[in-house]
């Protein structure tokens, strides 16, 4: 970075027109310019909350991305909304203001992965500047760092470099190959109506379709007889549903599927046999869940959770666990108590111990699924399957949420939310659900034994295509355009192979035809064509298939630079290769 663009004046630093101001008396700022970024050290001189503001001229700013953005893509006013509490198990301290070309104006991240931070942001109507405020509880002499990327880079590129700098990436839990294969989940297909026989019937078909992982969701445990969680806490199998749980797990594994079971280890229900012994350790009740939340700042709670999880894996031969509802611990973020004062740091201690125990039990990395919003970069030390939060039947949400996780998790294994669709709908509508998960690992959650032959063939086709392009889709470089446009066109490439998926109607796809020898162009819309904008001329072979993979034409065409309209069936595929 050009050092002449960096200046400091007391409690204010400025780099590339981005101002960093310490608003707390005595707090110190120090800057270290790097090749593509500036790293700012923030040193608290007194114990308490250190307040820092980052701000930049609004310019052509059109949207602000942050890890928990969800549908909140427009620019907020700085007087809107409350402070957001961010910590290890709830999002991450990072964000990117970008312009109409999808290039960053202010991209930043913090290394406070394990401690709680309050954050707010928005446009000032008085100054036409965009500001971000960070409130950080710090001890005297404690410090943290902010990395600020140089502006003008594509959003995905800026966030990728921030993520590689943030804590967690260097010590990430490695993903066994089973976590990088299509999965079958019981949640949407069965909910709590699970049993050994029903799960095994689904597992057999899932294995035929190319799945390598089964996730048994909520409902396997005793006292799971309602949609709420008043029976949680003991974590023993329901003897009526699973009379020999270990034998059942083994049978599924013999089909070629790894086996992961759901657990919500911080939830404690009054109907659980464990309630009497743990009631005093779970002072907060969540009425919507009909249960209490164990306080992880307590030593006894951490010991109990680790022991229960380890026993579950060891006793029944599981390959891993789906850890759910970890974010509920944030109810203790603003209160005092015994043990570790900061709930994020307490959760790190808990998860560190759990990771160590499970590794020792298995002699290898366990499969650990984490879900938004606690699938941030710092949590990569503790989980290797980072899943989008629930969005049943919403293909757009599934696409957006998986891409949001991936933006701060380069090299990680991101899983989509469980895929479900109307089994009576047209096959194109069903295919678009699978296409929404192409840039993540698909998790299918349909009653496969009841699925029509056409829907089953469609599922097998797209899972097979995903496996064929896995190294491109989840290991390659990726650009998804402007986040406020819901990532309407996504491109991934690895070497000379690329996959481009058009999710928005009437989009023009830019393409360098001589750069790639294999391009999979997917039409995830209801239109019957796609429009390419070629940078140069090329003679190409076009191989077109419909939503089920059935041939729809093969052509050799001389394509000149400029716009070209290609016939591609709705939810269909066109492969381009040199002719």
TrEMBL record:
Family annotation (Gene3D superfamilies): Aldolase class I (3.20.20.70)
A Pfam entry, by short name: Melibiase
Database matches in InterPro entries: Aldolase_TIM (IPR013785), Alpha-glycosidase_related (IPR050985), GH (IPR017853)
Origin superkingdom: Bacteria
Protein name as annotated: Alpha-galactosidase
